[in-house]
Design a protein that fits this description.
alpha/beta, six-stranded mixed sheet, 10 helices, 2-enoyl-CoA Hydratase, Chain A, domain 1
Length: about 375
Amino acid sequence: MRRLAIFLTFTSSVFAASGTEPKDVSQAGIQTAFRILQKEYIRSNDLTFDVLNRAALSGLLQRLDFGAELVPRTSEAKSGALTGVQAELLTPQTGYLRPREFTPRETKELEQHLRDFVTKKVAHLILDLRSPSPPGDFNDAADMLSLFVPKGEVLFKMKQIGQTVSEVETNTREPIWSQKLLVLVDEETNNLGETMAAVLRQRKQALLIGAPTRGGAVRYETVPVDAGWSLRFARAEVLLTDDSSVFKKGLQPDFPISMPTTIKRQVFHATDASDVKSSITDKPRPRFNEAALVANTNPELDSYLKRSAGQALPEDAPRPSDTVLQRAVDIITARTLFQSAKIDWNRKAPVSNEPPARRAIPVTK
């Protein structure tokens, strides 16, 4: 009975916090409801202490959302078919970087690619933080941010539960990239990527493009609970330099662009084996032109014959398109065109020597 009383007290507090029960029901009423169900429910024998205990834990985890979760111990280590930083020049003046798992090795790769971009005098950078990777170590987030933030500046703070003083992360090295950049985010951006995006935008070094993030900028701790499962829960909260937090709030992009998660993952899978540029450019259908005439070929006739024979054509299965990255490139292109345009707003229209046109005189009866 003592175990049941403890359980009922714990369960009632869980469901009271979750807001799933009527607000006017007291704690005593909740406990009474559980006791009645255990005695009078048509299948009260099914409501064992183990079943109720699991229901309480399930309700608590649902209430905490991504603040705590049970993970298989076999998946505690980072998983993924590919690791490393995907780097590419989308145009001679636009670089693209996407860390896949935010590891120390990727930090070194990120630095190498940034140095290469600076050497090539790349003017624009797109940092893609949409990789669906597990929560990472904030030392790696600090190391990656140090490549962009000036030396001596505060990167972020960590507020540990039960402590009044926050741990301050400060950049101790010279940055590699000092220009502004575009950052791609979405609901799968992990805790490190979300922190990097929040810091760069707060410093007005970056514009965010994509979908809202989920607000998981916290430090997680993983503790084994049995032979097969571990409990991963938020242990410390990330604070920005003004002590604001994005936990449970998330980041709202400066340029919201919706893109289904399934399509994004298809794009990542396709570009892992090829170039990123193929996801934002369309390959034109072969047509009969002067080059085909010189080569004595007719691609349109070949396509017609294949179609007539019931064969599939390459254009029948187009590759998935990354609309978020496309819009980022469009923004850079538009900005470059406007900056390069020389407009003299004070210039007057040239005076014409032609006589003014005569106005038509209406005919009246």
